[in-house]
Design goal:
The complex is a heterotrimer of chains A (338), B (151) and C (336).
Chain A (H helix, E strand, L loop, with lengths): L3 H17 L5 E7 L6 E6 L22 H4 L6 H6 L6 E5 L1 H12 L8 E6 L7 H7 L5 E6 L5 E5 L4 E4 L1 H4 L2 H4 L11 E3 L10 H10 L3 H12 L7 H5 L24 H15 L8 H5 L8 H14 L29
Chain B lengths: L1 E2 L16 E6 L3 H10 L8 E6 L7 H9 L4 E6 L10 H18 L7 E5 L5 H18 L10
Parallel strand pairs in B: 2-3, 2-4, 4-5
Chain C lengths: L2 E5 L3 H11 E8 L5 E4 L26 E8 L2 E3 L7 E7 L1 H14 L7 H8 L1 E6 L25 E5 L3 E6 L2 H9 L5 E2 L4 H14 L9 H7 L5 H6 L7 H5 L6 E8 L2 E8 L20 H20 L9 H5 L6 H7 L3
Parallel strand pairs in C: 2-6, 6-7, 7-8
Antiparallel strand pairs in C: 1-9, 1-10, 2-3, 4-5, 4-12, 8-9, 11-12
Helix pairs in contact in C: 6-9
The chains are: A alpha/beta (338), B alpha/beta (151), C alpha+beta (336).
């Protein structure tokens, strides 16, 4: 695993060159946040400020979520006349983030030729909630990384607490099968192998092995915490609809509140809309203020898409998304016959 | 913290009968259902038909909403693959339905509550047979309690 | 203001007395291991060592989901509210103070909100002073403090062997009288010790520049800082939903045929659809206008209209923002 500070140095050099040579108008990366275990997205336009760019175990956010809005088409012909040309954007992308960009390119939300993809082979990112919980009674004032990639936190009484990276990795990272970006214009860091490619399958098999009633009970219990804030949807790069079906008022498909029936259908419909598109980056889990495992349902659907149609989202730019395509011999054993 | 109240509905005096909402594509399945009627083929009255232009029009949200509104089961029926009036609508829909069926089951909802079929315009008897099967399977499951929203 | 002490060992008995009068919510560990206001049973241990709850207590007064009325066949009826007293024990001073802001919005004379008013009247808030501020706390900069009792009915400060209880309202006075047999007079030096604990907590809180915010924000309305600061916002709604003073809501009718209910739910000004007009025009079309509005509402409009900052420095927005936006840095930049 390439040490983070080496990647950080190369990242700053790459960004500086891209901005100085005007090969990008904007460079999207991460910078230090005001609280430990976190970074915050950085929208950089000035090559002199590249020292702000950071690369560390807390670069968890999926920056692909910002891309559709940067390339939004003008609303009408009149606006199109005055609209500036779309920018060229450089962006730091981990393996999962890259797959989101590929999916966005497939769905014509971002143009490949206006993107400079700076890929970083990713060893997995820290879940700040797991880290905070691992500290127990203590409150972290700062956190950093050692040479082995483990995290060290300085707590309120000045002492240092070591947090082995494996124990505080995000659950999406523990299941990651694509840590190394598949497409890139520059790749930083030695390629990383997936640690446990069968992890996701084990999760769905374990859940699927429960009895029907137990699955329903588990789902309801998980979803009962949902406050319908829509953070999962907003954080997802693939949810870029101007008006979500589930927000529509004419007609009103779904109630707005926390009635458990509405909450359940919200998550079921989101899962349907994500099938074959979700790259399991975990942005939804990270955004959820209530700590719900929002990947529970989509993980299963993604596996079904892989098994039934041989498709994995975000791998090939010129592939047709699976729900816009079909084969004459698609399986249909689910049908009802008289 | 929720403070929703429910509007109580007077309990019906009759025995429970399953309510099935059937989304039928205009060109094949709806015509097939029509043929069943014209041919005086008897089939259970539990089905309420919603006509759509094509099975490809169906958004999973429609089916879930039907269940939320009190349907005990939903049936979606379209043209046989290769016969779609819009050429490819049912072929794309076939993938959506396969996934929805898996999702519903994985989530812990009885998979028999969400059913799909192909019925052509000339298959009045087939339509009746499918409706009978769906109604019986849902009857065995009992009223839908999982997704229904009580107002 | 009555001041008494209660021994830690008598706390359970005190809560039992409250249970006899209504529903008691006290801090307890939930399944995730976080401390939250839960309806603790008599055998469940109450936790007194925590920073703050994940969710603010505003849901007890302005629920996320509230039925305003039910209708059937052309007749409407308000739901019969549960006639119960609620006791919230362990609310932090910042969250208690936030209730004063909500009171100004919802208990506005002729335009009083009866749903809020009813819940406020039947709920007793017992605040517990803080000893462990977090790096994200800044209550002291917005008029509050770890030992501030404003908005609560009783303020409790933990000492070695007991809790100092200070009534903050007539309701608090009545409650203390009703459990007088469990209370003792304040021993010599206890108040000073309590003040010392609060002072130690205050010192751990880094100051944030909020002075003259209304004027500075007025001058900075057209500043380019809003564009830069708002670029990261995902419009996820977390900040508004967790904020103890945010109170915007939506009202929708849920109907089936001639039957249904009218429901109030939380809304968020960061949502793109929040100010979308029926005509299609949106006066706050981009994250820039929405983020600016959020800061303006809390630190300028509320000050100008209601003479109060609509931020209590609880830090939830900073801790929970998925992209770690921090409004403290915006406040620093404004008028710098």
């Amino acid at each position: 695993m390439t040490p983070s500070h080496e990647i950080e140095t190369r990242l700053r050099e790459t960004a500086e060159q891209l901005l100085r040579e005007k090969r990008v108008d904007l460079f999207l990366g991460y910078e230090k946040a005001s609280l430990p275990f976190r970074t915050t997205p950085l929208f950089l336009t000035c090559p002199q400020e590249v020292e702000r760019l950071a690369w560390n175990p807390f670069c968890a956010a999926n920056l692909a979520v910002y891309l559709p809005r940067l390339f939004k088409a003008p609303a009408d012909a009149r606006q199109a006349k005055d609209a500036p040309p779309p920018p060229t954007v450089g962006v730091v992308l981990k393996g999962c983030d890259t797959r989101s960009v590929v999916a966005l390119i497939q769905e014509r939300q971002v143009p490949r030729d206006k993107l400079v993809l700076v890929g970083v082979a990713c060893p997995g990112m820290v879940d700040r909630r797991k880290a905070e919980r691992a500290l127990g009674e203590h409150v972290a004032l700062g956190a950093g990384e050692d040479a082995q990639g483990n995290v060290h936190a300085v707590v309120e009484d000045g002492t240092e607490v070591a947090l082995p990276r494996e124990q505080i990795l995000a659950s999406a990272c523990l299941e990651c099968r694509s840590p190394t970006p598949s497409i890139h214009d520059a790749l930083l860091g030695e390629p990383v192998e997936a640690k446990d490619p069968q992890a996701a399958r084990r999760q769905t098999a374990e859940f699927g092995a429960k009895a029907l009633a137990a699955r329903w009970a588990h789902l309801r219990q998980t979803l009962s915490k949902c406050i319908r804030c829509n953070a999962c949807r907003q954080a997802c790069p693939m949810c870029y609809c101007k008006e979500c079906l589930l927000d529509q008022t004419r007609p009103r498909w779904l109630g707005a509140g926390t009635d458990i029936s509405d909450v359940t259908i919200y998550h079921l419909v989101r899962a349907c809309h994500m099938a074959g598109r979700c790259t399991e980056c975990g942005a939804c889990v990270r955004a959820c203020p209530m700590g719900i495992d929002t990947r529970l349902l989509v993980r299963k659907l993604n596996q079904e898409v892989e098994d039934l149609y041989g498709y994995r989202p975000g791998e090939a730019i010129d592939a047709t998304p699976p729900l816009s395509a079909f084969a004459m011999d698609d399986p249909q054993d689910f049908l009802t016959e008289p | 913290m929720s403070q929703t109240q429910t509007v109580q509905e007077a309990a019906p005096g009759k025995e429970w009968e399953p309510k099935i909402v059937a989304f039928l594509c205009n060109w094949c399945s709806y015509a097939g259902a029509d043929l069943a009627g014209v041919s005086r083929i008897q089939y259970p009255h539990n089905v309420r038909v919603i006509r759509v232009p094509c099975s490809g029009r169906i958004n999973p949200a429609f089916l879930l909403r039907a269940l939320q509104n009190g349907a005990d089961g939903v049936l979606v029926s379209g043209c046989h693959p290769g016969d779609c009036h819009y050429i490819t609508g049912n072929l794309v829909a076939r993938r959506k339905f396969a996934l929805l069926k898996e999702l519903v089951q994985y989530a812990g909802i009885e998979p028999q509550r969400v059913q799909f079929s192909w019925v052509s315009a000339s298959e009045g008897g087939r339509f009746a047979g499918i409706v009978e099967k769906v109604v019986e399977e849902v009857r065995k499951l009992g009223p839908n309690q999982k997704l229904v929203k009580t107002l | 203001m009555t001041e008494k002490t209660i021994a830690h060992t008598d706390l359970e008995t005190f809560l039992d007395r409250l249970r006899a009068a209504g529903v008691v919510y006290a801090p307890a560990e939930d399944e995730a291991g976080d401390v939250a206001l839960t309806e603790v049973s008599p055998t469940e241990p109450v936790v007194l060592e925590y920073s703050n709850f994940h969710l603010s207590p505003k849901g007890f007064f302005l629920p996320q989901n509230q039925t305003l009325l039910c209708f059937k066949d052309g007749k409407a009826a308000e739901p019969s509210p549960p006639d119960q007293e609620t006791f919230l024990f362990g609310v932090r001073p910042c969250d208690a103070r936030a209730l004063l802001a909500l009171d100004q919005v919802f208990l506005d004379g002729e335009q009083s909100d009866p749903y809020y008013a009813r819940l406020r009247a039947t709920t007793t808030v017992i605040a517990l002073a803080c000893t462990r501020p977090m790096p994200s706390c800044f209550c002291t900069s917005v008029g509050g403090g770890p030992g501030d009792g404003a908005g609560a009915d009783i303020l409790a400060v933990g000492l070695e062997a007991d809790l100092l209880l200070r009534a903050q309202s007539p309701k608090g006075e009545d409650l203390l009288s009703s459990v007088a047999d469990l209370l003792a007079d304040v021993p010599c030096g206890a108040v000073e010790r309590a003040e010392e604990r609060v002072r130690v907590a205050e010192e751990q809180i880094a100051p944030v520049r909020v002075d003259n915010s209304a004027q500075r924000l007025r001058d900075a309305y057209d500043s380019p800082l809003w564009e830069a600061a708002s670029q990261k916002c995902l419009a996820c709604g977390t900040c508004s939903f967790l904020c103890p003073t945010c109170h915007c809501f939506d009202i929708t009718d849920e109907a089936r045929g001639s039957r249904g209910r009218r429901v109030r739910t939380w809304d968020c000004c960061a949502y793109p659809l929040f100010t979308l007009h029926a005509s299609g025009h949106n006066p706050r079309p981009t994250p820039k206008e929405r983020w600016r509005q959020r800061i303006m509402h809390k630190f300028r409009y509320a000050v100008e209209n209601l003479d109060r900052l609509f931020c209590v420095g609880c830090g939830r927005c900073i801790r929970n923002c998925p992209v770690s936006m921090d409004l403290r840095s915006v406040l620093k930049e404004v008028g710098a």
